[in-house]
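--- STAGE predict ---
source: upstream dedup step, 1 unique chain passed
mode: sequence only
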Amino acid sequence: MVLPPIYYRHRDVAAEALGIKVTSYKLSAFVVSSVMTCIAGCLFAYYRGFVSVEAFSLLMTIEYVAMIIIGGLGSILGAILGTIFVVLLPYIIDALVDAFHVPTRLTTYMFAIKYATFGLIMIVFLVFEPSGLVGIWHRIRDYFILWPFKHRPLGR
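--- STAGE serialize ---
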């Protein structure tokens, strides 16, 4: 029985040995992602009415990379969890500043503090949790699924 190509996405040699045309699948994945990016760009230009370089800053790029790294590479759930986390993090920092009555002279540095927090969290996730929030979610889910038992069954 030949498994679908998604099971061989990291094993190019094994996929080729089973008769799957890896080059054509990679090319088709590139074409599909390019078409989706093109459509998104066209919709963005139509929505804004004007497109310029200023719409896409370095800080936006850092936020997008942070979403992917913090959420977990290679999964849609990771992208969603990372996006939720990165979007809510500045609001959480602002709420903490308001709750702890930080002096006004320090609030001028809040922009730098927010992005330093992004950088620190990205480093922590890369070093200690490479699978991101998805890895944490899977461990919590497996714990509650297997609660009275210590190990996974062999067939799983």
